[in-house]
């Protein structure tokens, strides 16, 4: 009887083994998610001792219909390591099988679908909606989001995307990243990727860099923490930073401003109306201290009368 049971299980698994990859570790699970580019992956989690053969046929049918945009990967829970089991359990108190986990290249969270209480038709309709998105709308969204990324990168020569903000990084990698940049004494524009999960997902596809933080110079992705550290250790990073973003570049700009020996104004001053603006500009233009530079702590602001 035992031999007959094992024979049946082997037949069942042979059917599963037709064209499907299997994973047993959390590392394989994460690596697969990170390599997604233009299609989604469906992790089908099961226990071979409990699997209804109906689901075996159904998964094969799904693969035949939707393999253009949906890759199926099998997770035999009886062979999965503890970390992978935690990942596929998700927010559930206990793991109910079979279960599907769908992961997408442009969406950060995964979708856990408990299919044990669903009919194959219900599950089919869910996957059909995913397939239709990749078939009809994915590339359109990609164009729109890539333009948004390009626009953000065009605003400043050095741009970084981190978790949090420079004065309060969220993770140790972002903190280490900002500390290295600050030691370089360079100017850069920073964006918090936590503010927009949708943008975060598309940025990974745009750059081909799947983790954060990310450094961009003149619109080109340079890399993350390890790449930045390597460039610093090899004394190559400053060759990539535009002069206007370096400390010496800022000093040169200031010297150009001061080179005319005219008064330089910083700080705040309120211009109430257009007459005052004209008078103020005339005063500034007429100030000229020969062989000296007079720096006044004033800057220009505008307001209107109530």
Q: Terminal Cα separation, in Å?
A: 94 Å
The class by helix and strand makeup works out as alpha/beta
CATH homologous superfamily identity of the largest domain: Glutaredoxin
The fraction of residues in strands falls at 15-25%
- Name the poorly predicted regions: 267-275, 283-306
Q: What top-tier CATH class of the largest domain fits best?
A: Alpha Beta
Radius of gyration over C-alpha positions, nearest whole angstrom: 29 Å
> Could you say what the CATH architecture of the largest domain is?
3-Layer(aba) Sandwich
Give the integer mean of the pLDDT values. Answer: 79
Total tally of structural domains: 3
Give the CATH topology of the largest domain: Glutaredoxin
- Total strands: the figure is 15
SSE order: HEHEHEHEEHHEEEHEHEEHHHEEHEE
* Helical content band: 40-55%
Describe this structure in words.
The protein is an alpha/beta fold and 306 residues long. The protein has 3 domains: 2-136, Glutaredoxin; 146-249, Glutaredoxin (3-Layer(aba) Sandwich), CATH 3.40.30; 260-302, no CATH class. It contains 12 helices and 15 strands. It has a 5-stranded mixed sheet. It has a 4-stranded mixed sheet with strand order 9-6-10-11. A two-stranded antiparallel ribbon has the order 7-8. The longest helix is centred in the middle third of the chain and has 17 residues, at 120-136. The chain is elongated, with a radius of gyration of 29 Å.
